[in-house]
Amino acid sequence: MKPISIAPLLAALVLTACGDGGVQEVKQWMDETKRVTPVTVQKIAEPKKFTPFSYTMKSEVDPFSPIKLSIALAKLQTGTGNGIRPDMERRKEPLESYPLDTIKMVGTLEKPGLTYALLQADKAVFQAKVGNHVGQNFGRIVKISESDVQIKEIVRDAAGEWVEREAKLELQENKK
């Protein structure tokens, strides 16, 4: 047999003994409190004044118009840009398969007349020298020092033209 808990039975017995006398007192108290308590309604703040904006560029070229897109595409095809253009025919180097923000500089290596940067990507360490390509934005190493590697990337700007952008990989200190 299961032991019967006495607590629920005792609680039920006590509640039945209260009867209607307690309920009547609570109703009287509630009625008295409703009568005495003043009703207060907070005033809602005035809405802010709306000032309509007047668009003054209606006469300008719509940035989303197909005409503007066709002009930009025509400019790309005729090659009337600034002359900067990545070499798409060149064979890709191993470090070009990694985004630049995933590559870390972990040191340098010097041989007579030549300095190599030690670059780590996916737990592999690569030797890179000035002129090597790195990153996925056609980056080329232009300078190597003991503390950083300076890179020039070729990216497209908002107008679709190729522009140069400088980037830098700094030496990562080992924190123990």
Named CATH topology of the domain at 94-170: SH3 type barrels
N-to-C CA distance: 64 Å
Supply the number of helical segments.
3
Low-confidence stretches: none
**Judging from the principal axes of the Cα atoms, what is the shape?**
elongated
Return the structural class. Answer: alpha+beta
Q: Give the tally of β-strands.
A: 7
Order of helices and strands: HHHEEEEEEE
Tell me about the biggest sheet?
A: 4 strands, antiparallel
Report Rg.
38 Å
Average the pLDDT over all residues and give the rounded result.
83
* Lateral arrangement of strands in the main beta sheet: 4-5-6-7
The amount of helix comes to 10-25%
Name of the level-1 CATH class of the domain at 94-170: Mainly Beta
Describe what this molecule looks like in 3D.
This protein has a domain at 94-170: SH3 type barrels (Roll), CATH 2.30.30.830. The chain has helices at residues 6-18, 21-36, 66-78, and strands at residues 104-111, 114-121, 124-128, 133-134, 139-144, 148-156, 162-170. The relative contact order is 0.11. A hairpin with a 5-residue loop joins strand 6 (148-156) and strand 7. It has a four-stranded antiparallel β-sheet, with no helix packed on it. A three-stranded antiparallel β-sheet has the order 1-2-3, with no helix packed on it. It contains three helices and seven strands. The protein has 176 residues and is an alpha+beta fold.
